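cron nightly-structures :: item 1 of 1
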Amino acid sequence: MNLNNLLKTTFLSGFIIFASIMQSFAQSPVEMHGRLKVSGNQIVGEHGNPLQLMGMSHFWSVWGAEKYYNADVINWLVNDWKIDLIRASMAVEINGDGNSNKGWMNAKDHQTALVETIIHAAIDNGIYVLIDWHTHKTHTEEAQEFFGYLAAKYGQYPNLIWETFNEPVDQSWEEIAEYTKAVTSAIRPHSENLIIAGTRRWSQLVNEAADNPLPDKNTAYSLHFYAGTHGQELRDIGDYALSKGVALFITEWGTSHADGGRDMLVHKEKAEEWIAWALERNISMANWSITDKMEASAALQPDAPVTGGWDPEKHLSESGRFVREQIISINTKKYNW
């Protein structure tokens, strides 16, 4: 080997080693941003700069979808889909035969264990996790018990975000506000982490919250949309809320109609309009949902493996393939992955 070739080989070997070392020291999303907080109408990291998270939401933790509540699925979503956010959508008052069909009200240990599995996996992977009290009804004392327990146990971790009420439906904003204050009082002795408050009409009327915001300074408000049903009118409501100085977080969105997509139609162009709107405003998003149910919003085909390892063409739905591509594109640029 002549000198030039030797130098080239040595340089190449050194570069590969250096790249490998740098990769091993690459920051995770949580290492990069730290504990999240509200600043004006933006959610920022400890560095003070606005950020936008892009990830996935689990389906209700019942009816068979809980089979995807495991660390292998989170590992796969982080490594293959490049998510920086996961949402654990714990069913609250669902009742039925067997623990797998019962919500927290009737199977506390089972449901809490599912959520803790996702919390541990999120911490291990350095991503953020939404702890979602997934219900349409007000259960104040029960929510205080649930969030108080988890805040005392995990409140020191910057990964956790507290989503205190998935989708209020019939409650007034005044009722939702009083409920959220009560739940916040159970969280704050243990955790200063970001709280996401539900808003009226399936977490859409963020304008009402903006006109009468909660006193807690580290609370943002959830805005939900389904691309086949909701369009510019709801985005205008979101813009109004931002103009009033509150921060928004899209804790749930779908590519389908609001019923989850029983017609199996996926509205990609309308979803792209929403994604562009959210990116321009640094609003984080969690897509509904990780399940193999036969509906358009489900990311997986029936009987997709319960441990990840999903082949896009074989195991992902039309929506799943679209959302995966969106997350990879957005987060790869964001983190320089």
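cron nightly-structures :: done
Strands lie at 37-39, 42-44, 54-58, 85-91, 128-134, 160-163, 195-197, 219-226, 248-254, 285-290.
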